[in-house]
Automatic annotation (TrEMBL):
Transmembrane segments: none annotated. It comes from Psychrobacter alimentarius. Keywords: Transferase. This is Glycosyl transferase family 1 domain-containing protein. Residues 173-289 form the Glycosyl transferase family domain. Signal peptide: none annotated.
Length: 342
């Protein structure tokens, strides 16, 4: 019989793929389901059912009949849960870090930032905004890096007719795509400038962006903004692209990225600014890393013109798939949580 885990995300009474936090939680629950019975707000989570089998019911304090309680961003419910209980590492409060049996992170870099925060000016500057720019924080009893999980739907190849229709809609040109939240602090400015320069130099390529656009975000010239796309349609767009583009910005030093895992699943090259977390996800030797606009320009050029280079990147992505697959993550998470379950 599988151990039972109670889960909850904030005040959400249902689960859907309308935002990054929900998508990441759904992928996490799916991996957990390999070795645990996962109950969201008291209802059995089924990754294959409509709405994941979750009905829109009022949030209730759970009964004492679960083996583990995982609550994210709801301290009222967390406080009233029996032990053992774990919580996501944000939003931070000294009470939460002291109260729970383990804090969850999604990358090793974030885990190290918590462990070393009190003794490192570098980490205080890096993640200080999350921790009220405090000089000291509570170090939790235990920190579990759950990593991130691939959605296997991104592996499924679209049919040839749909692929051709998509390519025709992009003018049959090689296409570079950025999918996800369009916020200035994570926008890939270096990569976009490199691609704009390629167009100015005569390369016939498309640059597309799609996702929620924040008010302060200005879409650069030569970037075709497709608006917000339903989550279910994104695999088709990704597979139409010649190359994807990852986030840039300071958050790449401690936060993971679903779009990187989507590229791994689909086997589509992704241009990525080199950072600690991207090395966790893609490997230190990944050939699609850049540190400057100039490097991004030449890597994009090689992906377009050098089949050996492109195929080598695809091979590298295939090797990373196993680490983040639902199956592998299920086994990994079972080991991480096993010592918390009596």
């Amino acid at each position: 019989m599988k151990p039972k885990i109670f889960t909850l995300l904030g005040n959400n009474t249902t689960l859907n793929t309308t935002g990054g936090d929900k998508i990441n939680e759904i992928r996490f629950y799916t991996a957990l389901s390999k070795h645990f019975e996962v109950y969201y707000n008291g209802q059995l989570f089924n990754p294959h059912a409509r709405d994941y089998g979750i009905k829109d019911l009022p949030i209730q304090i759970p009964e004492d009949n679960y083996d583990l309680y995982y609550i994210r961003a709801n301290n009222r419910i967390l406080y009233n849960c029996p032990r053992p209980k774990v919580a996501m590492g944000i939003p931070y409060s000294s009470w939460l870090y002291h109260h729970v049996d383990a804090v969850i992170t999604t990358t090793e870099s974030w885990k190290q930032a918590i462990l070393n925060y009190n003794d490192s000016a570098y980490y205080r500057e890096l993640v200080g905004d999350w921790y009220g720019n405090s000089e000291k924080i509570i170090v939790p009893k235990k920190i579990i890096n759950i990593r991130q999980t691939i959605d296997s739907n991104f592996m499924e190849k679209i049919d040839a007719n749909s692929l051709m229709r998509n390519r025709i809609s992009f003018g049959l040109k090689p296409t570079f795509g950025f999918f996800g939240s369009l916020a200035m602090q994570i926008f890939p400015n270096l990569a976009i400038k490199a691609l704009q320069r390629m167009i100015s130099n005569g390369y016939e390529i498309n640059i597309i962006a799609a996702g929620k656009k924040y008010q302060n975000t200005v879409i650069p010239n030569k970037v075709n903004y497709l608006g917000y796309l339903p989550y279910e349609s994104i695999p088709n767009y990704i597979q139409t692209c010649t190359c994807l583009i990852a986030n840039e910005g300071v958050e790449t030093e401690y936060l993971g990225s679903g779009k990187v895992l989507d590229a791994i699943a689909a086997g589509i090259p992704i241009l990525s600014y080199r950072s600690a977390v991207r090395e966790e996800q893609l490997g230190k030797d990944y050939l699609g890393f850049y540190n400057s606009e100039e490097e991004a320009y030449f890597i994009a050029k090689f992906i377009l013109e050098n089949h050996f280079f492109r195929n080598k990147i695809v091979e590298q992505l295939k090797l990373r798939y196993e680490m983040f697959s639902t199956e592998s993550q299920g086994d990994y998470l079972c080991k991480q949580f096993s010592d918390l379950i009596i």
